[in-house]
Design a protein that fits this description.
429 residues, alpha/beta, TIM Barrel, 3-stranded antiparallel β-sheet, 39% helix
């Protein structure tokens, strides 16, 4: 009998992401009728060490943003190399693509081409086995629903206002189920809309790339205070039920020439910014601060982490870019207590899972994350459950490409039934 897990066909297509930019979709079919379909996301604020998404640069098509070369690489190079292989051999297939690309940053074939293929392989395997992807990846222990970190006020590269900090998030930690947590997040999101309208007018409720509102604000405290008002007026406790987190994306407001950070209309040195974050964290009981410094500042991260004394999760994204080597550097220097996990930063599923394994083995919180340019692809929801969280970032509870992930988590919660655990019940925060 033929092996049903053998790859029968590999195809690729240029599709659109949530910003209307082209991206790569890969479809893999197995002999047994399994189909895996995956779409590569794209970021706006990117770390310099990320794997490279391949763009055509032809200004006559999508203003240079088309990905026909990456699509062609899947069809002409990757497809023939993995045709006839068993989709369950995920690591072997990922290794073949890495070797075929032969660059350190996947710039020859494109991380977008490689990642979409890698994820499609796993989804084809799960479909052939007639299993949910999270269960295929994580086995019987995969039953923890992640705590969502919802970006509901946008600044920085995600918005057109004057806020230096890129994301102001609510984190519903004090609830028994994921479905309760999402309900509460939606209630606060809608209350925030009313607060913003009354304070700033109707234009203040336009949304940014990730579904969060982009009001005409300038000061970080102004945004945090507004979030606090929305949380309180929704009837929830700021200490035990809903916490606030920030993604500073500080590389975006760092001036390399002046060696200073422009925030709240001021230029702050590294030492002054450490004081700024320390004071802000104490004043507002912040749960976490992501990318508080420039993407090379391992020492500054470590100093802030030391001064916060474990009271706040210090998260690395641009600093680490889902790269094990950079994570090991951060661990050696004591730079972080949490890491963002973005599969397209590294380029394959197996490398993503390896990164998560190293982080968890060293007691580091993992936050599975979307990108600002997303799609209806919901793979990261399955990855988050497969590795038992504890966190996921996938935007505000609005815009279809964001709610696609939350809806999939709701489906997974229902599928698991009584076996489902909400991460806040088992994670000490």
């Amino acid at each position: 009998m033929n092996n049903p897990f053998i790859i029968r066909n590999v195809d690729a297509l240029q599709v659109l992401d949530s910003r209307g930019d082209p991206t790569v979709e890969v479809v893999i079919e197995t002999v047994g009728g399994g189909i895996g379909r995956a779409i590569a996301p794209a970021g706006a604020s990117k770390g310099r060490y990320e794997a490279v998404e391949l763009r055509d640069g032809d200004l006559s098509r999508f203003k240079g943003r088309s990905v026909l070369k990456a699509v062609s690489n899947v069809i002409n190079y990757i497809g023939p190399a993995i045709h006839g292989m068993d989709v369950r051999r995920q690591r072997e297939i990922d290794k073949i693509m890495i070797q075929l690309d032969s660059t350190l940053n996947k710039s020859r074939l494109g991380a977008n081409a490689i990642l979409a293929t890698s994820l499609a392989v796993a989804k084809a395997a799960a479909d052939t086995a007639k299993m949910p992807l999270f269960q295929y990846l994580g086995g019987i222990n995969a039953r923890t629903l992640p705590i969502p970190m919802l970006n509901i006020i946008n600044g920085g590269a995600h918005a057109g206002n004057e806020l230096a900090v890129q994301e102001f998030m609510i984190v519903p930690i004090g609830f028994d189920t994921f479905s309760d947590a999402i309900r509460v997040a939606v209630e606060i999101y809608k209350e925030l809309k009313s607060v913003l309208k009354s304070r700033y007018g109707a234009s203040a409720v336009n949304v940014g790339d990730e579904g969060g509102y982009a009001p005409p604000m300038k000061y970080v405290r102004e945004a945090i205070e507004t979030l606090r008002i929305a949380i309180k007026s929704s009837g929830y406790d700021l200490e035990k039920q809903v916490r606030i987190s920030l993604d500073a994306a500080a590389t975006q407001f760092y001036d390399e020439d002046k060696k200073a950070y422009k925030i709240d209309g001021n230029m702050l040195t590294e030492d002054k910014l450490i004081e700024y974050w320390r004071d802000l964290a104490a004043e507002y009981n912040l749960l976490s601060i992501e990318d508080p410094f420039y993407e090379e500042s391992f020492e500054a991260y470590a100093q802030l982490k030391k001064e916060l004394k474990g009271s706040v999760i210090v998260i690395g994204d641009d600093l680490i870019v889902t790269n094990v080597t950079r994570l090991l550097t951060a661990l050696k220097q004591g730079s972080v207590s949490g890491v963002i996990v973005k599969p397209n930063q590294v380029g394959t599923l197996s490398e993503t899972l390896d990164f998560i394994g190293v982080a968890k083995a060293n007691g580091i919180y993992t936050i599975i994350s979307h990108r600002s340019g997303e799609s209806e692809d919901n793979t990261i929801a399955h990855i988050a459950v497969a590795v038992n969280g504890p966190f996921i970032k996938t935007g505000a509870p609005a815009r279809g490409e964001r709610t696609a992930k939350y809806n999939e988590l709701l489906r997974i919660e229902r599928y698991l039934g009584g076996e489902a655990i909400y991460a806040s019940k088992i994670v000490s925060i």
